[in-house]
Each structure stands twice: as structure tokens, then as C-alpha cells.
Amino acid sequence: MQVLSSPALDFPVEQLLVNPTGKLLAVVGRYELAIVVLPRRGYMKQVGTMLPAKAVRVGAFYHTAHDCAAIAECRWHPLGDGGSSLLVLTEDALLREYDVVRDVDEPQQVVPCTPHAGAASRTRSALSAEDEDAVCAVSLALGADSAGEGSLDASGDPAAAALPPDWLLFTVFVLMRNGDVYALCPFLPKHAAVAPATIRALAAREAVLGDSDGAREPQRRYLAALLRQAAVAEADDSLSDPLLEREGTPGILAASAREGTPAPAGGAGPGSEAAAARLTTPGSSPEPQGPFLLQPAPVELSDECASLASDLLFVRLTAPERGAWLNLLAIAGRDGRVDLALLLEPVEPRWAHRRAAQPAEADAPSLVVYESIDLGLAKLAQAGPEVFQAHNRVAFVTDPLYPDTFFLTHAYGVHLVSMQRWAGDLLDAIADRAVEQAMAQAVHSDVACVVHSPSAEASAARVIGALVLNDVYLSYTFFTLTNSAQLVALELGLRTAGTEPLPEQAAEPETPPAYTSLLAHGAPFEPPPVFRTPMKRVAAAPGGEIRVSADSLRAFGRAAEQIRNQVRDVVAGGNTVQARLELQLREMRRQLERTAALRKRAAEMAGDGGAPPATAERLGRIEEQQRTTLRRVDALLQRLMDDHQPQLSVYERRWFDELARMAREFGVDDTAKQRAAARTAHDRLQKLEHQLELLRPSFALYQEHCRTQAPSEQMLGAVQRQRVENALAQEASLLAQVRGRVHKLESTLGGR
């Protein structure tokens, strides 16, 4: 393994994009962007793990961490000349197109994606009522990515070229964070490579369409300008490599773009380099169309907060043998909701400077929501909906073989969504003009979780990237990369005739999620500093008569500014406290609702007078089963002990021998004899205790006498006295043992 290194790559990397030629690599960060020239195969064989690479920063003035909008998404445009057109979408809803071979500092085009993009961020204040999610771009989708593809059989049938042309080849869809979708048409790279046959087919379509009021005259002039450039390009043989003849072209990137330029997408038939014409986009910027109206409106998964969109996917499904096609937009939300919307109305061009000449639309463009899929991510989340959506992003991964299948990556793994069950039937219905009947059947897509992560925490294995490869050596495989550098491979199966869709998954019993407080996240609430520190007193005006002068006016101005600042701080602190109070009230209502639900459930389970008969009977059976189980466990434990130690130890044999001797001594043969022996032993024990009590004073007098005797008298030595004391102690011990045995025999006989 070798690592590409460059001084220009000094920022955290979030996305890597290889251009259509495979020579340039776009390295995308949160705010920064750079282009890396990929080394040739020969350089990959050099010794060492670090491989120096040539890199160039792109748009350093527009893409930086200081007072610039964050980068939402980057995409290489397939129609860019030499594969050098890079689209950069920022969160302020501005789309910039860079031709990295010609100029890496200034964009070729800057197109607003919403009617108030760019200006909205400059004029919007803290007191504005405008929804910030409605002007924050998160993703884009190119119609050119699927214009020449989409056959369900993945056979590459040339009959797909027979489908009627449309303007989707020149369309860019942009998704806002609140779920709004806008369309930019026509949009082409400033320096594009398009097949002339595609332009002629589109011009023929415009010529067939009626134009009684002249509304389609701008489209025809636009296509006529492209056709004139295509004719000149076809007649000029010197356009094989125009990039090297331009002044100011970065030599590093130009040399890389010169090699291996692929056929542009959207070409007629199997496009080749010779079939493409290098064009310059005529006219002005397109006017944003939208937002699209979703009908019917998708169902929100949570009542606490709205769903936030995260990614957009455009798919074109075709049935060349039936002459039917279907355009679909998939919208993914951070909460795990995926909306599949059908684009049934064609997208028409619209220019920003020709609003007066264009007919005013009475209705907004619409998307027909075919299905809303719930991935069930909210059930796995430990935090609240707002915190969960802030840390989760759902992204699409397309399938290179089957356009009706795509993958969804998120913080908890990867999901597979297959539209095979209904896509073919819907295309047949479109060909037969029976769309309403097919929509009424409501056949759902197949959803399956192919990669699962147990947690979305930082310490857990999280998916950070995914890719579907269709290679001769690597086969048809889905690869997933985790944050711990673990590569998970899933081999996919090719479809054959009679292949059935994914089987229906058995419904798993739903378990109620664990209760999570809205106040559990973040640090404990602290009152704003303005309420904890005393306010500064405004300097009082000097006594006496106030004269209007420059000094007095300045003093009044300073006092007014201090009061204004204090009022602003108090208002901001009040807003913070009010927001915290509202959150606490929401949490209290949730707790009251949860408590009421638990109380109701407990009452239903307990009944009026305690446990219902059915519950009591069930508890009785459980207790009886528990007692039976305990008895079985005891018997099993005894068997295990017997099997583990089948032989008696030496001490056990001695004990049993002693018991046998005592039985013989006391004449214990049967129950009567045992009772008589017990009584006799008890009597003997009482006699011995009586004798001991009588001898105890004499023994004390004897010890005193021994201490007071003269040394000349005969007395016991220390050793002898120790022996006597030991013998007495042994006798006392034996008496205690006998007493215990007698009590044990009495208790045994008394129990019978």
C-alpha cells in the first residue's frame, strides 16, 4: 500500500472523486478543495510507502474555512471537455463550475440554485423569519449521468438510442435541506463535448412541437447555436488537442487531461471520441425551477422534528423494446426516510434573462411520490430525533449494472433497495397508457440490511464509504469501508432469466425503544452570564443645566449604546432561557404521557381487585414449575457430586467407624434399643457432669495447695503438669463430643 502525499492536502478529507479520464482526483474537504494528478503505473512500483503527488488547490478564494460557505457536494460532469469540468455545490445554494485544466482559481460559471441564492445569505439576519433549511443546499444530481443508460436488462441494447430525446441531458437537480428540489435547465459545462447526433435529435423534437405563441423560440435558438458549433467542429481537424494551445493552462493538469479522454455521456449510440464535438455553452445562466411539489405529501416519521434531507439520486429506467422510459428522483432523509418520486412531466429550459419572454407558469412543477420507505433507523438511535439527524447522513450508492437497485449508507450500516418488483410492470403500464392502474396496485420495493453496525458512537465501527465494482478480476462486488480501516466485501449475484426479487422478510416483533430524555444530551443548563453578573451602571449626567454640545451628544450616544447593548444581551439571554423552558415543558409533557401510558397498562394488567384470575393462575403455574426445577437441580447436583467423588475419604471412614463403635457400645440395634441407649447415655452424662461439678472445688484447692507447698516437698514438674492439663483437656473435649452425639441422637429419635 502506498500513500499519496502533497503539501496542498492540509485539510481533513471527506470525499474522493476520480474524473472520467481516470487521471485526476478531486480531494474534497468541508471547506477546501484540491485536485491531485494520479501517478502512472510505473511510479506505483517505486520503493517506499509515501508517494509524492502533484496537487493544486481549487478556488482558494471561494473555498476556505474563513467566512466561506461549506461545500455540500462535488461532482465531475460527464459532458466536460477532456473530463475536466468539476461542479462544486456550496451550502449557500451556489453552483460553481471549474475547468481544472484551464483555470483552477476562478469558476467558469456561477449559477444560483434558488431564486434568492447567494443574496439570501447576505441579507438574512438573526431576526429573519426565512427558513434556513430552505436555502441550504445539500446535494445535486445530474441528468447526464443516466441519459444514455437505464435499461433494466443491462445488456447495452442499441435500441435504447431510439427513445425520444429530452432536455434531461442538460439538467441539474439540486436538493435543499428541507427536502425542496430545484431544477437547472439548460446547464452545460462552459467547454463541453457532446455528440452532434444528440443535438440534432433534440432539435428535431423541438421542430415537431407546436409553437403558436413563440414560447419555444429560445430553445430553438439555443440548439441552433450548438448545431453551428458542432458543424464547425466536425469540419475542423485541428481540434484534436486544443487545451495545449491555450495560454494560462496549468501544465500539470493539461498533460494529464490530454491522455485517455473518454467518450462523453449522452452520445448517440456507442459514443466515441470522434463522435463528440467540442462546444462552448451559449446564452446566459438558467433560471431555477421549483421547488417541486411532492404529491402526495410524504408522511413524517416523527412529530417532534421535521425530516432533514441529505442526498439526491436521479435514475432513468428504460424498456427499449417497448419504447417506454421512466424518470425517478430518490430523496434520502437523515431520519431514514427515502422518498421515491416519479418525474412524469418533462423538464423544459428556462433562462434567467428571458423571464418576460417566457410564459408564466400557473402551477409549480410536481413530483409524484410513488413510495416512502422507512429504514427504521430511528428505532436504533439512542438520542433524540434532532441529535440523531445531526450525526447521521444517508447517502446513495448506485449500482453500475442495474439502475433499479441502489444502496444506502448511514451511521448504522448499509441498506439495499430494489425496485425490480414494480419497475418493469410500471414501464409496461406506461407503454400501454395504464399508469393509474399500475400506481393503484401500490407494489412496494424490497429493502434489506446488508451491513449492520451495532452503534453509531465514535467507538463503534461506522461506515464511511461504499462502492459497487463490476470488474473482471474483482467480479460484481459491493465494498464497504469502516472508520477502523476495515473493508467489508459482499459478492452480488447477477440476474438471469426468471430471477425473482428479494424474498419477503419476516416481520420482526417491534420492541418499544428505551426512553431518552430531551435534557440528557449536552452539558447541564447554565443561566446566561447576563443574569449572573450585575449590569454596569450607565454614567450619570453631570448636574446642573445640560448644554447641547458635541461632548454632551457624545456622552448621550455612549450611554445609549451601553443601554442598547445591555438590552440586546438581556433579550438574547431571555430567548435562551425561554428555549430551555420550552424544552423542559416538552420533556415534562413526554414524561406525563409516558407515566399515564404506564399507569394505564398497569391497570389493564392488574384489573380491579389485584391480579386477574388468568394472571394468578399463570403465576401459580410458574411458581410450581420453579419448585419442580429446583428439585431437579438439587437431584442433578447430588448426582454430580456422587459421580465426582464415588470413594469415601479416610476421614469419612474414620467417622463411620466411630459411629459404628458407639452403636455397638450403646447397643443400638433397633428403634427401641436406640431410645434406651439414648436415655442411658443421657443418664451417664448427667452423672459425669455431677461428678465433675463435685470435683471442681477440690481441684481448685489442690492447685492452691501445690502452689503454697515448700520446694522441698514433692510436687509435679512443669512438664508433668502440662501433660496432666493436656489429658484433662482431651477428656473435656471427649465429653463435649459425647454430649453433642447424645443431643443428635435425641433429636433424631424425637423426630421419628
Description:
The chain is elongated, with a radius of gyration of 44 Å. It has helices spanning 119-123, 196-208, 217-235, 251-258, 385-391, 420-431, 435-441, 529-532, 550-606, 613-644, 650-666, 671-708, 718-751, and strands at residues 3-5, 15-18, 24-28, 33-37, 50-52, 54-57, 71-76, 85-90, 94-99, 109-112, 137-142, 172-176, 181-184, 191-194, 277-280, 293-295, 309-319, 324-333, 337-342, 366-374, 395-398, 405-410, 413-418, 446-452, 463-471, 475-482, 487-491. Residues 153-162, 238-249, 260-274 and 503-510 have low confidence and may be disordered. A hairpin with a 3-residue loop joins strand 25 (463-471) and strand 26. By secondary structure, the protein is an alpha+beta fold. It starts with a strand and ends with a helix.
Overview in brief:
The protein has helices spanning 119-123, 196-208, 217-235, 251-258, 385-391, 420-431, 435-441, 529-532, 550-606, 613-644, 650-666, 671-708, 718-751; strands at residues 3-5, 15-18, 24-28, 33-37, 50-52, 54-57, 71-76, 85-90, 94-99, 109-112, 137-142, 172-176, 181-184, 191-194, 277-280, 293-295, 309-319, 324-333, 337-342, 366-374, 395-398, 405-410, 413-418, 446-452, 463-471, 475-482, 487-491. It is an alpha+beta fold and 752 residues long.
